[in-house]
Amino acid sequence: MTTVRMAGLLLSLGRLDRACAAWHAVLDDYPLLGSGRVDAVVRQLRGTLGRHAASPAVRSVLARAGAAEAAGRGRRRGVPPPRRT
Q1: According to DSSP H, which parts of 13-55 are helical?
Q2: Using 50, 70 and 90 to split pLDDT, how confident is the model at 12?
Q3: What is the model's pTM?
Q4: What gap in Å lies between CA 54 and CA 57, rounded to an integer?
């Protein structure tokens, strides 16, 4: 959750590219976590970054967040996460 807080702080300071890098770090770890708090953060991410969707860095994070959220829903239904290559 520390990286989540850091991403939020960077965003509030206007450091959009660094905030996106931090969000990517969160999304890297997301498949390994089974936390309801992290699930909620990934859902909220879209609203938090949505107003900055003109940025390619933000669009990349939002696309990954959508895919991660969908995979998380499948994981809760007993579908195994995708294999990392």
Answers
A1: 16-29, 36-50
A2: very high
A3: 0.76
A4: 9
